[in-house]
C-alpha cells in the first residue's frame, strides 16, 4: 500500500509535468523574438514605454541633464495621445529611477514638463521641445 | 556590450560560488570533488547570502560600496574561510567519487532529470537575455535602490526613504549593484540574467541536497514540476526579491530537516547563513526564518537531537543579522513592518475570509498545478508509513508559513480579500509554501518507500 | 549494460540536448549593442548617405564636437539623436559615395574622425 501511494504520487506528478513542460519552448521563442525585435531605446526604457507619452523625453533628459544636477517633474493635464498609464505618479516614479544618479528635487534647475503650465516655472526656458506637450525646461541659463 | 556584461555576471556568480564552497570546505563537508559538485548550488547560495548579509551590515555603518570593495570582499572573505579551514585541519578534497555506485536506473533517471532541467534553464536564458525592465516593482523601487547603491556607494537616504517599500531589506539591491559593477555599468537588460543565475543555483542546491536522500525517480519529477507550474516558470526571473527569499528559506529549511534527521553541524551553519539572508531579502523572510528555527528547536527538543545549543546559537546569529537594517530605517524615521496592533484588531469574519483566500490560492491548480496536493498526500503517507519526524517538521513548518500568509491579509486592514496581486501579496507569499512543499515531497515519499524499517 | 556504457549513455542524455537546443533555436544568438545604430555605407553605395563625425553620450559632448566640426568648415553640420540613446554629429549634404569618401578623407586630414553611413530611414 505505501509503495502504491508513492507510485501514484509520481504518476500524477509526471502526468502534470508532461503537458506543462513543453510550454516553456514556444514561450522562450516568442519572448526571445519579441525582445530581439525591440530597438535599443525600447529595450532600455522597458516599462517606461507604457507610462511615458513619448520615449524621446527620457532619452533627451538623460543626454542633457548632467549627472550631478537635479530635475523636477511637472505633469499637467493629459494630452492627446497619452495613455491612461501616463499619470503623474507613474511618470515621476519612472523618471526618478531612469535618470539616477540625477536626483529629483522640487526646486531643481531642470524641469521635465509633461503638458505642464510653463507659467508655473518663471524664468525657465525650453531647451528641448517634443511632441504631445513634452518639453525640457531649464532655469537660470 | 552584452557579451562583456554576461562575462562580468559569470565572473561575479563564480565568485559567489567560490566563496560559498570555500565556506562549506572549511565546515568539513567537501571530502571529495564529487561533494563539491553535488553541493555547488548550496555553496553558491551561501556565497550570495553571506555577501548580501555582510554588505547590509557594512552599508548600515557607512562603508562605501564599490568595485574594489566587492573584489576585496570576495578575496578577503574566501581567504578568511580558507584559513579557518586550515586551522580546523581540513584537507583538500581527495578523489572524485566515494565508490558508492548508484544503479543504472538511478543514473539514467538522474541524467534525464538534469537534461530536462538544463533544457528548461536554457530556454529561459534565451527568453530573458534581452528582457527589458517591465515589472513595475522592479523599476519603481528594486532597481532604483540598486542604482543608488551603485552610483552613490551606499544606502542613499533620499532613495531608500522616499521610494515605495522603504522597509524592504537591501540584500537584492546589493546583489544587483554588484551585478552592475560586474557588467561595467547599469545594464537593466542584461541584469535579468543575474536572476537566471540565482534560479540555477536554487535548482542545483535543492537537487544536490536531496540527491542522496531521495531516489532520482522521486526527486526529478517533483523538481521539474515545481519549475514548470504556471505561477513559477518564467516568473522566477522577475527582478524582484520574492523568489530569492523563498529559495533561502526553503534550502535553509531542507538543511534543518536533514540536520534533524542525520546531524551534521555544517548543515546548521549553512542554514544559518541562508536564513540570515532570508531576513535581509524581504520582510516575510524574518517570519520564514523564525518559523524554521522555532520548529527545528521544538523538534530537536522533542527528539532530543544532540547539538541543540548550536541550533540556538544559529538562531541568535540569524536574529542578530536582521537587527542593524531594522535599526537603520527606524533611525531614518520609517515605520515598522508589522501592523501597529500586531493584527489583532480585525473581525472573525475577516479572519475566516483570509484563511479561505489562502486556502483557495494554495490549491489553485491554475497557479501551482498539483504540487500542494501531492505534498499533502506525501505528508499524510509519511506520517502513517514513513518518517514521522520529518513529516511533522515539514507539516508544522508549512502550516505556520501558510497561516502567516493568512495573517498578513487579515492584519493589514487596507489589503482587500482578493487574489489580485496588484493589491494583495498572498499569491507571491504562497510561493514559499509551494516551493517548500515541492522540495520536501521527494524526501517524504522516499521515507514512505523505504518504510519504517528503512529509517535511520 | 556495463557501468561504463551506462555512464556514457547518461552523459549523452545530458550533453546532446543541452548542446542541440542552442544550435537549433531559431534566431540565433545576437548580442545587440548601440553599434546596431551604426550603419556603415558599403563601397559604391547609391542610397542616401551621411558623413558622421562621431557619436557622444550627452548633448553637451556632442555640441562640443559639432562646434569643432563647424570650425573646420562644415558649417551645415548638425546634431541628431542616433536612435540608440546617443547623439551624432553629421553632415547630410553627401550626394554620392565618391563625394562622401573624398569628404571623409578631407575630414581626416583636418584631424576629424569621419565615416560614411547610410541615412536612417524616415
Instruction: Tell me the span between the first and last alpha carbons of chain B.
Output: 54 Å
Estimate nothing, just give the exact number of structural domains of chain C.
2
Taken from the alpha-carbon principal axes, the silhouette of chain B is: globular
Secondary structure tally, helices of chain C: 3
Subunit organisation of the chains: heterotrimer
Largest Cβ-defined interface? A-B, 41 and 58 residues
Specify the helix fraction band of chain B.
over 70%
The biggest beta sheet of chain C reads: 4 strands, antiparallel
* Strand and helix order of chain B: HHHHHHHHHHHHHHHHHHH
Q: Helix- and strand-based class of chain C? A: alpha+beta
Biggest sheet record of chain B: none
* CATH fold-type name of the largest domain in chain C: Alpha-Beta Plaits
**What is the number of helices of chain B?**
19
| Name of the CATH architecture of the largest domain in chain C | 2-Layer Sandwich
Q: What is the ordering of alpha helices and beta strands of chain C? A: HEHEEHE
What is the C-alpha radius of gyration of chain B, as a whole number of Å? 21 Å
Strand content of chain C is 15-25%
Spatially, the strands of the biggest sheet of chain C line up as 2-3-1-4
Helix content of chain C: 40-55%
- Full CATH superfamily name of the largest domain in chain C: Sporulation related repeat
Quick structural gist:
The complex is a heterotrimer of chains A (141), B (456) and C (122). Chain A is α/β, with parallel strands linked by helices.
Amino acid at each position: 500500500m505505501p509503495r502504491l501511494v508513492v507510485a501514484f504520487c509520481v504518476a500524477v506528478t509526471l502526468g502534470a509535468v508532461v503537458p506543462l513542460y513543453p510550454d516553456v519552448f514556444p514561450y522562450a521563442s516568442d519572448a526571445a523574438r519579441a525582445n530581439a525585435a525591440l530597438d535599443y531605446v525600447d529595450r532600455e526604457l522597458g516599462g517606461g514605454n507604457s507610462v511615458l507619452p513619448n520615449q524621446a523625453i527620457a532619452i533627451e533628459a538623460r543626454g542633457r541633464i548632467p549627472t550631478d544636477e537635479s530635475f523636477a517633474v511637472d505633469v499637467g493635464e493629459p494630452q492627446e495621445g497619452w495613455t491612461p498609464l501616463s499619470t503623474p505618479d507613474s511618470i515621476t516614479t519612472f523618471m526618478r529611477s531612469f535618470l539616477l544618479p540625477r536626483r529629483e528635487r522640487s526646486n531643481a534647475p531642470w524641469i521635465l514638463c509633461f503638458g505642464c503650465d510653463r507659467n508655473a516655472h518663471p524664468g525657465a526656458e525650453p531647451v528641448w521641445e517634443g511632441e504631445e506637450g513634452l518639453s525640457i525646461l531649464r532655469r537660470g541659463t | 556590450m552584452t557579451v562583456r556584461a554576461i562575462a562580468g555576471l559569470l565572473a561575479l556568480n563564480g565568485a559567489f560560488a567560490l566563496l560559498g564552497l570555500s565556506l562549506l570546505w572549511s565546515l568539513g563537508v567537501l571530502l571529495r570533488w564529487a561533494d563539491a559538485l553535488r553541493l555547488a548550488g548550496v555553496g553558491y547560495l551561501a556565497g550570495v547570502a553571506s555577501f548580501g548579509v555582510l554588505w547590509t551590515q557594512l552599508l548600515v555603518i557607512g562603508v562605501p560600496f564599490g568595485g574594489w570593495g566587492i573584489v576585496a570582499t570576495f578575496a578577503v572573505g574566501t581567504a578568511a574561510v580558507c584559513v579557518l579551514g586550515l586551522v580546523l585541519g581540513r584537507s583538500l578534497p581527495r578523489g572524485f567519487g566515494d565508490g558508492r555506485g548508484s544503479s543504472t536506473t538511478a543514473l539514467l533517471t538522474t541524467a534525464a532529470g538534469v537534461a530536462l532541467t538544463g533544457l528548461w534553464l536554457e530556454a529561459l536564458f534565451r527568453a530573458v537575455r534581452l528582457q527589458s525592465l517591465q515589472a513595475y516593482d522592479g523599476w519603481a523601487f528594486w532597481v532604483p535602490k540598486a542604482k543608488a547603491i551603485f552610483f552613490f556607494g551606499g544606502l542613499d537616504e533620499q532613495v531608500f526613504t522616499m521610494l515605495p517599500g522603504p522597509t524592504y531589506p537591501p540584500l537584492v539591491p546589493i546583489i544587483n549593484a554588484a551585478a552592475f559593477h560586474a557588467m561595467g555599468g547599469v545594464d537593466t537588460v542584461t541584469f535579468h540574467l543575474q536572476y537566471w543565475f540565482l534560479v540555477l543555483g536554487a535548482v542545483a542546491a535543492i537537487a544536490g541536497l536531496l540527491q542522496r536522500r531521495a531516489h532520482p525517480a522521486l526527486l526529478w519529477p517533483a523538481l521539474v514540476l515545481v519549475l514548470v507550474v504556471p505561477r513559477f516558470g518564467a516568473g522566477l526571473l522577475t527582478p524582484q526579491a520574492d523568489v530569492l527569499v523563498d529559495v533561502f528559506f526553503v534550502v535553509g529549511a531542507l538543511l534543518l530537516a536533514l540536520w534533524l534527521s542525520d546531524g551534521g553541524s555544517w548543515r546548521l551553519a549553512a542554514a544559518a547563513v541562508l536564513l540570515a539572508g532570508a531576513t535581509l531579502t524581504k520582510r516575510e523572510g524574518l517570519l520564514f526564518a523564525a518559523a524554521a528555527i522555532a520548529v527545528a528547536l521544538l523538534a530537536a527538543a522533542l527528539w532530543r537531537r544532540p547539538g541543540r545549543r548550536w541550533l540556538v546559537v544559529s538562531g541568535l546569529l540569524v536574529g542578530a543579522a536582521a537587527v542593524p537594517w531594522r535599526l537603520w530605517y527606524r533611525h531614518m524615521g520609517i515605520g515598522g513592518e508589522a501592523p501597529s496592533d500586531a493584527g489583532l484588531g480585525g473581525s472573525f469574519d475577516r479572519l475566516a475570509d483570509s484563511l479561505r483566500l489562502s486556502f483557495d490560492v494554495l490549491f489553485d491548480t491554475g497557479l501551482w498545478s498539483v504540487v500542494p496536493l501531492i505534498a499533502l498526500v506525501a505528508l499524510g503517507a509519511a506520517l502513517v508509513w514513513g518518517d514521522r519526524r520529518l513529516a511533522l517538521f515539514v507539516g508544522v513548518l508549512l502550516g505556520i508559513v501558510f497561516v502567516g500568509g493568512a495573517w498578513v491579509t487579515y492584519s493589514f486592514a487596507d489589503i482587500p480579500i482578493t487574489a489580485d496581486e496588484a493589491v494583495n501579496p498572498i499569491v507571491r507569499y504562497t510561493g514559499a509554501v509551494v516551493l517548500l512543499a515541492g522540495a520536501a515531497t521527494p524526501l517524504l515519499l522516499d521515507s514512505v518507500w523505504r518504510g519504517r524499517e528503512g529509517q535511520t | 549494460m556495463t557501468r561504463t556504457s551506462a555512464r556514457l549513455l547518461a552523459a549523452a542524455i545530458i550533453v546532446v540536448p543541452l548542446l542541440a537546443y542552442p544550435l537549433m533555436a531559431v534566431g540565433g544568438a545576437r548580442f545587440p549593442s548601440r553599434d546596431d545604430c551604426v550603419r556603415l555605407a558599403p563601397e559604391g553605395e547609391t542610397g542616401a548617405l551621411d558623413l558622421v563625425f562621431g557619436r557622444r553620450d550627452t548633448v553637451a559632448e556632442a555640441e562640443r564636437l559639432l562646434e569643432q566640426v563647424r570650425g573646420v568648415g562644415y558649417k551645415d553640420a548638425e546634431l541628431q539623436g542616433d536612435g540608440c540613446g546617443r547623439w551624432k554629429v553629421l553632415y547630410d549634404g553627401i550626394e554620392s559615395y565618391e563625394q562622401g569618401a573624398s569628404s571623409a578623407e578631407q575630414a581626416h586630414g583636418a584631424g576629424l574622425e569621419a565615416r560614411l553611413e547610410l541615412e536612417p530611414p524616415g
